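Figure S7 source data.
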Amino acid sequence: MTEELQRLEAEALAAIRDASAANALEQVRVRYLGRKEGRLSAILRGLGRMAPEERPKAGAEANRIKAALARALDERAASLAETANPGSAAEPDLSLPPRRRWQGSVHPVSRAIADVWAIFRSLGFTRVRGPEAETEWYNFVALNTPLDHPAADEQDTLYLAPGLLLRSHTSPVQIRTLERHPPPVRIVAPGMVYRRDTYDATHTPAFAQIEGLVVDEGVTFVDFKATLAEFARRFWGPDTQVRFRPSFFPFTEPSAEVDVKRVVVREDGSREETGWIEVMGAGMVDPAVLENVGCDPERYTGWAFGMGPARVAMLRHGIRDIRLFFENDMRFLRQFA
Ligand code: DAH
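Tokens for the predicted 3,4-dihydroxyphenylalanine complex:
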């Protein structure tokens, strides 16, 4: 009897070792330990019919084997689960809905550009583009910025050849547009710009800008403020406040820096005001700029702005380091799906 039991043990252990999946292992368990048809269970049930002197020894041996098989089954189950689903010893739950595959998403800066554009489009603006390689005329001189201005310095601007550079802002698109289209003009021009900046948490040598320009008869500072306030409320929410701070740009007079103050609504419904955050430079188009493109400044007036969509996206999502937009770390980008 003991011999028969030991043969059964060896056979069962081999079957456990050979089981290559959870269901095969379950079949092995049923074959040997199943309450009705299990071979070991049958032997245990038959102990009562055995000669009384043999019974204790066979009984003890059968119980030892039962425990050994149960342990071997558990260990094998854990190792199969680990292979099938590394990191978890448990079997996968087949009733769970499948995980959605991530199929990519729009980059947060592209999303900001698209959203800004959608608002201006609804206000009657057209979207235009300009070249990234520009001449000094379009990037500086026509914009009323003399070449001895610090911005034109090689320290700040990336030159490709004498007189030819990577545009340091999208403002040259103002000139290219007005040259080809007489007013009325209402455009936004998103695109990349380049500067000799050190790559750090708030600067990158290449970044996106969105230029805006309106030129027509009778355009006033009031149009300018009202349009930007409307934009800000649509983009950041109806309780957004807008502030115009006096500033200086060679191509606008007067010039302003535009700050917004937002109301952030928390998940628990509580509301909190942010501080004032600068979102763009802007102003009334300088008459000298209009003259440079052959527009009569006595007849036409206009306003313009230059906005940083990366900054806008940082504000929107509470991102503190601009470099995250360039590093293509999937763990970062996946959040914007
Ligand atoms: N071009 C400016 C810059 O890059 C931003 C700017 C300021 C654009 C005022 C404008 C403007 O159109 O009116 O810093």
